[in-house]
Design brief:
about 700 residues; mainly beta; Immunoglobulin-like; 6 domains; 7 helices; about 10% helix; elongated
Length: about 700
């Protein structure tokens, strides 16, 4: 029969910022059956007439035993994805009446769009398959047997029995033997190869019945047939059984042989049998048979249904927590139905992480009603003092669209500093830079907020700090930059009240220069020579230290220096240590060198030079200081050394005085010194003997020396 078809397509609701397919969901629904048409029934009657010579009186439908129906969609594949497709398949039809089956195919997303496009063109790559089992009456065999009764009658003459009495089994055995004689002729037309034995058995059973009926009559076994007493007792028992169960013994009749004519026995058998039946059709053929399905597609618009779920998006600006002092944000949102003048729903949304800057609330929107979306924002701040409030709130605002965007910088004063690193070559000297930012009240320097940022070879991107504050609170940014060095103490630089919104980290190692190092030595008497260098940077607390080792095959190297701009170029301190062929260690003093080339030799003396400087003191004129002297004493009794210097004079505060002494044991570093100070009017000050180890001695003269 003709199928019943219908289809629908669901169209998405309109919105902003939402990517949807043009069709969300689509489905095709159909009822199909196997009712034969009038034309098909006429063809069946004509076929029967041609086969059997006459038309059937009535056409009865064949009974159905079992069945299944399959809908196969080429687009869905062999195993449809349940997230995208639903295809009715492997269902059982009714099996009664017209064998009706109901089938559905449903798709979503892009597949739904493709399905509707195919349906609109009345051409779908799909097919419907029935898998049925019918019950039919099938002929199994046709058999006939010609019985020559005269020969059959005389066949029993070969058996010798008292009074011609035959046991039933004897008759059966004798008839079975007839198949090998000319007494019977058997012909079997096999319609089923497995049924031949059954046909032969049925023919012989029929012949046995005819033989017993025509040639024998029931009889009892006579007692006189027994030869002894035991057989007579047995025969008596047999006669009793024969009386109870007739047909056990028979006696051959006396028949006029003229009555024994030839007859024919015909047999035929039909069995019920299950036949497989697989009707099938293309879905396109079924669609075309009902005039197409394109005009049967129902278009469902979500915007037009009376009630629909509405989503209200609530978002914060991307850098809300990354670069500001905002700890959390609470947005209170109210959905108000202006048509009914009723509040629909209210929800508070909390944001406290940069990983979740959006949220939403849902409500049921009624068609043709107008809605208003009210919201209020409260921000909780991180602050180091009471200069900034811990909580800042906005008044209620309203929007007409279901999209709420909050950017704190639009409502409060935002103070911002962008920290950048433009000279990445700085990482040739430092492996890590730490920038500590102190946000202070510009009026009284009270601390408001503190942040720290790290820069390294991997993370060189700029860092932004935004501080949200009241417009009445002026702020300033003080920066402390720490450069971490591999072999020296970290270098620290301070920048107060950084101007502008952009700050570039300075490179304190922009002064780059080098010194060529050449070693001349008698390598037959020297195993190696070690050269140590120090460069005193004008901005670093500790000197830049390097060490070089020279061998017979390595007697030239280069010292490369990167330092601050205020550091003198090509000015270094160096010390030479020699390891002799006898493993004797000779270490020279620290010497000062200026120039692009330094030549060292193995002609060394084990000496040390102690250099003393005044690093802090009052003004000599104002304090009426006439002169400052210092004395040194070095003692090494194991090597017979006891040397004391004369009083060495500082002419002014910037003078450097030196004390040189032999030092065969470079591990014995202790020495003693004392300072003499004389005033313009005879005042004197003298320290006691003080012990020190460092060859650079830094002196401090107190302000209240007199």
């Amino acid at each position: 029969g003709d199928p019943a078809l219908s289809a629908y397509a669901i169209l998405p609701e309109s919105g902003v910022g939402v990517q949807n397919e043009s069709i969300i969901e689509a489905s095709l629904m159909m009822d199909i059956d196997l009712k034969p048409t009038k034309e098909e029934l006429i063809l069946a009657e004509n076929a029967i007439k041609e086969k059997f010579g006459k038309k059937p009186e009535i056409l009865a439908p064949a009974p159905l035993y079992s069945g299944k129906v399959y809908l196969i969609m080429a687009q869905a594949g062999e195993e449809p994805d349940p997230e995208k497709w639903f295809v009715t398949s492997g269902v059982k039809p009714s099996l009664f009446g017209n064998n009706r089956a109901s089938l559905i195919v449903k798709a979503s997303g892009r597949d739904a769009k493709y399905l509707i496009a195919a349906l609109d063109a009345d051409s779908v790559p799909a097919s419907i398959h029935y898998e049925l089992e019918l019950i039919g009456i099938a002929p199994v065999f046709k058999a006939s047997m010609v019985a020559h009764w005269e020969k059959i009658y005389h066949h029993f003459d070969n058996f010798e029995h008292l009074n011609l009495i035959f046991y039933h089994d004897q008759i059966s055995k004798a008839i079975d033997e007839l198949t090998e004689t000319s007494a019977i002729d058997i012909r079997i037309e096999e319609l089923d190869p497995d049924i031949k034995a059954e046909a032969m058995k049925n023919l012989l059973n029929e012949l046995k019945s005819e033989v017993i009926q025509k040639l024998f009559k029931p009889a009892s076994s006579p007692l006189s047939a027994a030869k002894n007493r035991e057989e007579k007792i047995g025969n008596a028992a047999t006669r009793i059984v024969s009386a109870i169960i007739p047909g056990m013994y028979y006696m051959r009749r006396t028949v006029d042989e003229k009555q024994l004519v030839t007859t024919t026995i015909d047999l035929a058998q039909r069995n019920a049998k299950k036949y497989p039946f697989f009707p099938q059709s293309l879905l396109s053929s079924l669609i075309n048979s009902v005039g197409g399905v394109s005009d049967k597609i129902k278009w469902i618009r979500l915007d037009e249904i009376p009630f629909i779920d509405q989503r209200v998006e609530i978002r914060l600006s991307a850098d809300t927590f990354t670069s500001s002092n905002i700890k959390s944000v609470v947005v209170d949102c109210i959905v108000f139905n202006e048509t009914t003048e009723k509040k629909v729903t209210q929800k508070s949304v909390v944001f406290d992480s940069n990983n979740a800057l959006q949220n939403h609330l849902n409500f049921t929107r009624q068609k043709n009603n107008k809605y208003r979306y009210d919201y209020k924002v409260a921000m909780f701040m991180v602050t180091g003092s009471n200069k900034l409030p811990g909580k800042m709130e906005l008044n209620w605002n309203s929007v007409e669209n279901p999209y709420i965007y909050v950017n704190p910088a639009e409502y409060f004063e935002t103070h911002e500093i962008d920290i950048n690193l433009d000279d990445t070559s700085i990482f040739n000297q430092t492996h890590l830079i730490q920038v500590d930012v102190d946000v202070k009240d510009a009026a009284d320097s009270e601390m408001v907020l503190q942040r720290s940022y790290l820069f390294n070879q991997i993370d060189k991107e700029h860092k932004v700090l935004s501080v949200v504050a009241n417009k009445s609170t002026p702020l300033r940014f003080d920066l402390k930059i720490t450069y971490f060095l591999a072999e020296s103490k970290e270098h620290i630089a301070y920048f107060e009240n950084a101007k502008g919104n952009f700050f570039f980290i300075p490179n304190p190692f922009e002064n780059k220069w080098s010194v060529e190092l050449i070693c001349n030595a008698d390598w037959e008497k020297t195993n190696k020579i070690i050269l140590e260098t120090r460069v005193y940077d004008a901005e670093l607390a500790d000197p830049l230290f390097n060490k070089f080792t020279f061998y017979p095959d390595l007697n030239e190297q280069q010292l490369s220096v990167a330092c601050s701009l205020d550091t003198p170029k090509e000015k270094i301190e160096y010390r030479v240590t020699r390891l002799t062929e006898n493993s004797e260690i000779i270490q020279g003093p620290w010497l000062i060198h200026e120039g692009p080339i330094l030549v060292i030799t193995d002609r060394l003396k084990s000496e040390r030079i102690i250099r003393a400087t005044i690093v802090k003191s009052p003004d000599f004129v104002k304090k009426e200081i006439k002169k400052v002297n210092i004395e040194f004493r070095y003692e090494d009794l194991n090597n017979g050394i006891n040397i004391q210097s004369e009083r060495l004079l500082f002419q002014n505060r910037d003078d450097i005085v030196e004390f040189k002494h032999p030092m065969p044991d470079f591990n014995k570093k202790d020495y003693i010194y004392r300072v003499h100070i004389r005033g313009e009017y005879g005042e004197t000050f003298k320290t006691g003997w003080l012990t020190e180890r460092n060859e650079r001695l830094e002196l401090i003269i107190q302000e209240d020396i007199w």
